[in-house]
Design goal:
about 425 residues; four-stranded antiparallel β-sheet; three-stranded parallel β-sheet; single chain; alpha/beta; 9 strands; Double Stranded RNA Binding Domain; Rossmann fold; binds tryptophan; about 10% strand; Tyrosyl-Transfer RNA Synthetase; elongated
Length: about 425
């Protein structure tokens, strides 16, 4: 079996999902989560929400809505990792370790921060007016989200690519200093994903107030669809699909044949009222069953809370031991297991190693020792050197777990030290 490719996506919980989010991000993510050979992490970025929103009720409401939305559109929380960022204390903990290897100059160049500074300069006010340290640190928190779960691919819009590059740079700096612990992530931009126009023809975006909310009641959706701006051509006059946001939104929902039919209807002079009715019915056909699930979930926040907490327990099974490994790597260590080789330069040059040997009993053994030669793992006896070698290879590839029957911890060694050593060898 080849190792799974890990995908990870977060959504900031400061708004209400609209049809543009659905078509551009949510629907493709749910489809992607069903690919075999992948692990998929979807989380509610509620720490990120605090950066732009200081209204507690809105953060709570948005977290509930976005969680309900993911579940309603078909994300299966048993099959993916579905959790809330603030339930994972290891994330802010990792954020600090990463903060300490991130150049301030790198953060000075982050788009979101720079945009605010440029705006302030243009307005002739203090360059840092309205800039919180949270906004400045945004990319580091995001790097922690990603690096915590060793994610390989991050599906994002173009606006987020710089953040993924920063996460890579931060991970490289960390690995350079402390060994190969972190996986370097890559942005994945799906060019084919539609950027939907809103009701006024500009990109659908909350900031333009031109969105079709994803789960408004049916009658409200109808009103909103009928509010889409069109030109003034009369019924019977041929209409152009070029630049028609109504047509583009239809295309994002319809099959190829349906799209062809509407194209023809445009040419034949369909009235805007009929075209809007067609679009409304088409969206509603796809959304109605999800809306029903959404309403049921929104009426049962306890169930959503239960699902999120179960998700948090599952991801913390990874985050907790990994954080222990990283703490060890940087020197936040149990003092009873003090490393023999003191001094950073020495620790950097020397690596832990496996040693294989034969004992007087005729059996073959191996041990894992740290850079200073102290025993970390001691194997049981194997009949042949090949058997011992295979066990070593497995430990290198898969790591060591409590109760591993090939090798046991040396006296006074903690598991984090072993994981840290194996991670160094894996790199
Ligand atoms: N910054 C992302 C956005 O606003 C949300 C986010 C937070 C995220 N952490 C992430 C996305 C990690 C991908 C990976 O859209």
């Amino acid at each position: 079996m080849t190792a799974p490719v890990r995908f990870l996506t977060g959504i900031t919980t400061s708004g209400t999902p609209h049809i543009g989010n659905y078509v551009g991000a949510l629907r493709p993510a749910v489809e992607a989560s069903r690919r075999p050979g992948t692990e998929n992490f979807y989380f509610l970025a509620d720490y990120h929400a605090l950066i732009k929103c200081d209204d507690p009720a809105r953060v709570q409401r948005s977290t509930l809505e976005i969680a309900a939305c993911w579940l309603a559109i078909g994300l299966d929380p048993e099959r993916v990792f579905f959790y809330r960022q603030s339930d994972i204390p290891e994330i802010p903990e990792l954020t600090w370790l990463l903060t300490c290897v991130t150049g301030k100059g790198v953060l000075n160049r982050a788009h979101a921060y720079k945009a605010q500074v440029d705006k302030n300069r243009a307005a002739g006010v203090d360059p840092d007016a309205d800039v919180t340290a949270g906004l400045f640190m945004y990319p580091v928190l995001m790097a922690a989200d990603i690096l915590m779960f060793k994610a390989h691919r991050i599906p994002v819009g173009r606006d987020q690519v710089q953040h993924i590059e920063m996460a890579r740079d931060i991970a490289s700096s960390f690995n350079h200093l402390y060994g190969e612990h972190l996986v370097l992530p890559e942005a994945q931009i799906d060019e084919s994903v539609a950027l939907l126009p809103g009701t006024d023809g500009r990109k659908m975006s909350k900031s333009y107030d031109n969105v079709l909310p994803l789960f408004s009641p049916r009658e409200e959706l109808r009103k909103q669809v009928f509010g889409i701006v069109t030109d003034s051509r009369a019924p019977g006059e041929p209409k152009s699909v070029e630049g028609s946001s109504l047509f583009q939104i239809y295309e994002a929902f319809a099959s190829r044949e349906e799209t062809q039919q509407l194209r023809k209807a445009y040419a034949d002079g369909i009235s805007w009222a009929d075209a809007k009715q067609t679009l409304f019915e088409r969206i509603d056909r796809e959304i109605a069953p999800m809306r029903e699930r959404y309403d049921a979930l929104m009426a049962n926040p306890r169930e959503i809370e239960r699902i999120l907490q179960a998700g948090a327990r599952r991801v913390r099974e990874r985050a907790t031991p990994f954080m222990a490994e990283l703490r060890h790597a940087v020197g936040l260590r149990n003092l009873a297991t003090q490393a023999k080789a003191a001094g950073k330069a020495k620790a950097k040059a020397a690596l832990p190693s496996f040693k294989q040997y034969r004992e007087a009993d005729g059996q073959h053994y191996f041990k894992l020792v740290d850079a200073g030669g102290a025993l970390l793992l001691q194997s049981t006896g194997f009949a042949s050197p090949q058997d011992a070698g295979r066990a070593v290879a497995r430990l290198k590839a898969e790591g060591w777990k409590d109760g591993d029957d090939a090798a046991q911890l040396g006296a006074g060694v903690d598991a984090a030290a072993v994981r840290s050593a194996l991670a160094q060898l894996a790199g």
